[in-house]
Amino acid sequence: MVRPDWRGVFPAVTTQFKKDHSLDLEATQKHVDVLIESGCRGLVMLGTVGENNALSAEEKRQVLHAARDAAAGRVPVLSGVAEYTTDLAANFARECEDIGIDGLMVLPCMVYKSDPRETLTHFRSVARASGLPIMVYNNPVSYGVDITPEMFAELSDEDTIVAIKESSENVRRITDLTNVVGDRYILFSGVDDLVLESVLLGAVGWVAGLVNVFPRESVALFDWAVAGRWDDALSYYRWLTPIFHLDTEPKLVQYIKLGQQVMGLGSEVVRSPRLVLESDERASIIALFEKAAAERPIASTPLRTAAGE
User: Fold this and answer.
1) How far from each other are the two terminal CA atoms of the chain, in whole angstroms?
2) Residue 153: partners with Cβ closer than 8 Å, 6 or more residues away
3) Catalytic site includes residue 112
4) Per-residue pLDDT for the chain (309 aa), expressed as one digit of tens each?
5) Is 165 an active-site residue?
6) Distance (Å, rounded) from C-alpha 81 to C-alpha 91?
7) Contact indicator for 77, 67 with CB cutoff of 8 Å
C-alpha cells in the first residue's frame, strides 16, 4: 500500500455528550471543525479521550460517520480500535473501512494482558482484516502490554502497519525504535508532556490530548519544534506543561473535557463510570486552566493558520 503522509498534530478528539448523556453529534462535529481550522492535520476519534469503551457499537458508527462528514476530506480521520477480543477488533476494522474512515489506531485487547506472541498475533490479525493503514498505540502504562522495538521489527512485514503512537512515557523509546527499525514506521509522540523531547529525537507527529483545550497554541508549539524554532516552541512548552501533565492522569478525560468547557470549546459531561469533577478537585482543575489562559504567552510571530500560511 502507499504509505500515508501522516504528520503534525492529530488530536485524540473528545466525544461530546448532552446533559442526559446521549451523544451530541452536532457538538462533536463543531469541535472537529475547530480543530481542523486550528491547523491540526489529522483526527483520532474513539480513542481513550473519545471514551471508546463507553459507547455502544452503533454509537461508535454514528460518531465515525459524523466525524467523516465534518472533516469532509480536509484531513485524515482515524478511529481507535479498542475491543475485548481480536475478532471484535478485526470486525470493527472492517466496519471502519466500510464507513470510509482513513485509518486506524489499534490498541491491544482490553482487560486481558497478552504476552508478546499473543500481542503480535492480535496486531497481525487486525492488520489483515482491512486495507486501512494502521497506527499501533503502545501504552504499557495504561494497558499493561508493551510492544517493544524488537516486536515492531517482527511486525514490519505487515504493510498496513505504518505508524506508532509511542506512549510508554519513556522517551528513550523514540531512539530505540529508530535504531532497531530505522524509518520503517511514522513515529508519533503520544504523551503531551514529552512532545518536545520526542520531536527532538525524531517524532514527526503527535497524538495530543490537551490540544482539545488549546488547539491553535498546541499546533504552533509542534510546528515550531519541527521547524527547529526551539525558542518559540520552548516558551509555549513551558507555559503548557502544567496542563500537559494532566494527560497521563487516570482522570485525563474528565480534566480535558472540563478544560474544554472552561475555554468554551465543549462540555464536561462524561459517561460513567467516569463522573464529572466536584468540590475542591473541580475547583483546582478549573483554576489550572484559567491560569494557563491568563498567562498565554505572545510568540514572536503569528500562529500558523490551517492553510499553513
Assistant:
1) 31
2) 180, 181
3) no
4) 789 999 999 999 999 999 999 999 999 999 999 999 999 999 999 999 999 999 999 999 999 999 999 999 999 999 999 999 999 999 999 999 999 999 999 999 999 999 999 999 999 999 999 999 999 999 999 999 999 999 999 999 999 999 999 999 999 999 999 999 999 999 999 999 999 999 999 999 999 999 999 999 999 999 999 999 999 999 999 999 999 999 999 999 999 999 999 999 999 999 999 999 999 999 999 999 999 999 988 654 444 433 333
5) yes
6) 10
7) yes
Long-range contacts of 237-240 (CB under 8 A, 24+ apart): 237/195, 237/196, 239/292, 239/295, 239/296, 239/297, 240/192, 240/210, 240/214, 240/292
E strand spans, the chain? 8-11, 43-45, 77-81, 103-106, 134-138, 161-166, 186-189, 205-208
Quick check: helix, strand or coil at residue 23?
strand
Could you tell me the three cell numbers for 45?
Answer: 476519534
Whether 138 and 168 have beta carbons less than 8 Å apart is answered as: yes
Contacts of 9 (CB under 8 A, 6+ apart): 39, 40, 41, 42, 205, 206, 208, 211, 218, 219, 222
Check 60, 137, 143, 237 and give the catalytic one.
Answer: 137
Please tell me which residue in 60, 143, 165, 237 is annotated as part of the active site.
165
Predicted model pTM: 0.95
Tell me which DSSP letter residue 11 carries: E
Q: Which domains does the chain have, with CATH numbers?
A: 8-294 (3.20.20.70)
Question: Using an 8 Å Cβ cutoff, are 171 and 197 in contact?
Answer: yes
Is 21 within 8 Å of 269 (Cβ atoms)? yes
Question: d(Cα 223, Cα 221) in Å, to the nearest integer?
Answer: 6
Secondary structure class of 279 (helix, strand, coil)? helix
